[in-house]
Amino acid sequence: MTWLQRVVAVLVLSLLSACSGIVNFEKPQVNLAGLEVLDLGLLEQKFVVSLRVTNPNDMALPIDGLKMKLDVNGQPFATGVSNQKVTLPRLGETVVKVNVTTNLSNIWKQIKAIQSKTLAYTVSGQLFVPLVPGGISFNRQGELSSLGAAVAK
């Protein structure tokens, strides 16, 4: 075994022993915090979705990106990605802004469906965290009232 292989083995064992101490890790919570119009084109519309990410753990959590999908009334509405790097403070929260796009077809379906006073939504996706292969998935459902306030379920 070469010197470099020994160093790598010691580092891997150290990381594994450190991870074994993380017994009560809870997934961060992700909630819809806002939706702003960026650009309304004929075929494509762009929005900024604000996601409030809450860390219920007693340790800071680095996030180096995310991908998300927003469904409204059970229909796909918009998708987006962000490579924004943030550190969720221990027992804290932060707002991450994600540029999303939708198309005229998705908007038209929602306009036809706005006969009720509330819109059901689902925001889902993945938070990309170093050392967590595949990231941490999230899925949150809620409703938008006629006043535009988001109510998580």
Could you provide a short overview of the structure?
Helices cover 18% and strands 50% of the residues.
Structural features, described:
With 153 residues, this protein is an alpha+beta fold. It has one domain (25-152): Immunoglobulin-like, CATH 2.60.40. Helix content is 18%, strand content 50%. The chain is built from two helices and ten strands; from the N terminus they run αβββββββαβββ. The chain has helices at residues 3-20, 104-113; strands at 29-40, 44-54, 61-63, 66-72, 75-82, 86-88, 93-103, 119-127, 136-144, 150-152. The strands form two sheets. An eight-stranded antiparallel beta sheet has the order 1-2-7-5-4-8-9-10, covered by helices on one side. A two-stranded antiparallel ribbon has the order 3-6. Strand 8 and strand 9 form a beta hairpin. The chain is globular, with a radius of gyration of 19 Å. It starts with a helix and ends with a strand. The mean pLDDT is 80.
Features of the shown structure:
single chain; 153 residues; alpha+beta; Immunoglobulin-like; 8-stranded antiparallel beta sheet; 2 helices; 10 strands; 18% helix; 50% strand; globular
Layout of helices and strands:
Elements: H1 3-20, E1 29-40, E2 44-54, E3 61-63, E4 66-72, E5 75-82, E6 86-88, E7 93-103, H2 104-113, E8 119-127, E9 136-144, E10 150-152
Antiparallel strand pairs: 1-2, 2-7, 3-6, 4-5, 4-8, 5-7, 8-9, 9-10
